[in-house]
Amino acid sequence: MSVLKSGFYTIIPWIVATITDIFIGGLLVDMLVKRGRASTNVRRTLIVLGMILGLTVVGAAFTTNANSAIIWISIALGGLAFSAPIAWSIPSIIAPNGTVGTVGSIMNFLGNVSGIVAPILAGYIFDRTGSFLLNFLIAGAILVVGIFCYIFLLGKIEQIEAPFATKAPLPEPNVGSPTGSS
Question: How many Cβ atoms from other residues are within 10 Å of residue 122's Cβ?
């Protein structure tokens, strides 16, 4: 396949992803929640649905036809693209007061570590096997684990109370003496 043709093939999944991201991961979630649907159920259902669609990436591993591979990858990326903004909204909803940045940065850090490790591991696996089949299967397995985590481990999506939150403000230290007391 020529570079021009491969560029065209590359853009198709990202167009699908952009459309699903905006219309499902953004507008549909907001519309359903505004209409009174339980926000936890809406978010969990759409995240899991998107991740299940993401599993279709495995189909690309079992075809040698570029058109079929692009269809599988487009479906997978479209599903993952609309589940991602919903998942990224969760830290801002559940984080205790004053900790949204911390919770979001932990999530971002772990995502970036995965983004560093995944291509290195994928290259190593390809170098050893000469095929991307195992890489697609590993991606599918990771998605299955993620789906089970969202279904069975994620509770109600609501703000968590800080474990060490104080109900009353702490007294101001006395700064008038060298020891801090009068």
Answer: 16
Contact 114, 145 (CB under 8 A): no
Q: Which pLDDT tens digit goes with each residue over 163-174?
A: 776 555 556 666
CA gap 63, 61 in Å, rounded: 6
At residue 178, does pLDDT exceed 70? no
Amino acid residing at 113: V
Q: Does domain 3-152 have CATH number 2.40.50.840?
A: no
pTM: 0.82
Please check the confidence at residue 85 and state whether its pLDDT lies above 60. Answer: yes
User: What residue ranges do the domains of the chain occupy?
Assistant: 3-152
CA pair distance 65, 9, nearest whole angstrom: 12
